[in-house]
Amino acid sequence: MLEARESVRNLPTYHPPLGGRKGLRLDFNENTVGCSPRVLARLREITAEEIACYPEREPIEALVADYLGIRPNELLLTNGVDEAIHLLCETFLRSGDEALIVVPTFAMYEISVAATGAQVIKVPAGPDFQFPASALLSQVSARTRLIAIANPNNPTGSVAEPATLLEIASRVPQAAILVDEAYFEFYGKTLLGRWRTVPNLFVARTFSKAYGLAGLRIGVLAGNAEHIPMVRKVSSPYNVNGVALACLPTALADHGYISEYVAQVRQGREELQREFVQRGIRHWPSQANFVLASFGSLNAAFIQAMRVRGILVRDRSRDHGCEGCVRITLGITEQTVRLLRALRETLAEIGAKEVGAK
Questions:
Q1: Which of 62, 140, 302, 354 has the most CB atoms lying inside 10 A of its own CB?
Q2: 159 with 187: CB under 8 angstroms?
Q3: Do 111 and 19 share a structural domain?
Q4: How far apart are alpha carbons 305 and 299 in whole angstroms?
């Protein structure tokens, strides 16, 4: 009888709650107003011939490399960061290896690692979700072949300093060190190019967040020029679709659109955190486009009351250490005004004092 590999049969399943998303989408960390209008214009220009042809990835990779200030042979475009994670695992992991992740974090690290038959070693974050550098290094063994770190982290918004990440990479040279910078635009610190001195370092980027291209599925895996060709070997030559490749140069060129959107998100992030402080609601300082807050036993009531007001937020209670927590994405200024108004109404409805006491 045919059956899947044991590692696949035992995989945890990721079920994003995408159904019924009616309202202001503050639940998936997407760009809340969509891509640049110039990208929409480029979409309308795409011809039948362009769609009929197999897509050429390399010319756009050269353009993206120039945009990021790295070399074309240090970069691979991928079908979102999800594929970048998958390809890195397929390249460097085998059954019996170990991979370290800090929890809570993005679910796809564990899934992609486990699919290879490697063992996932989970290292709990420190107090207030601080990055546990010492605890992480204490779990390194001769079998460690991958360490995956989201920076800023999802769902907490916390960060590890670049110097700390470089030290980890230098102390574990036998392992691929993935630093997932999906939320870079909202943070500003990067390790791009540092693989020239620390060759086992890889950096992932996405165009799903600030750029508003989540539906086109396009990301970047960057790293040392000796290692990226190995990853390219396990990648399909047509992994990024032609529509995404056609639109990406236009998205990159509209600097003003991205910078204005990011500025408004950052401002909204500060306003939401101030609101939480004033109301005594526990939350964690974020460097991403979202804030994680604890509503304790009232979190389900909070989520539902916000939905009634047309605002979607994400329950993160099942994540390690996040019981009773809700993650709220930030958008443009007028959306933050609407968010704060709904937040105040909701807290009054479900009991602001009770929430603040949790």
A1: 302
A2: yes
A3: no
A4: 10
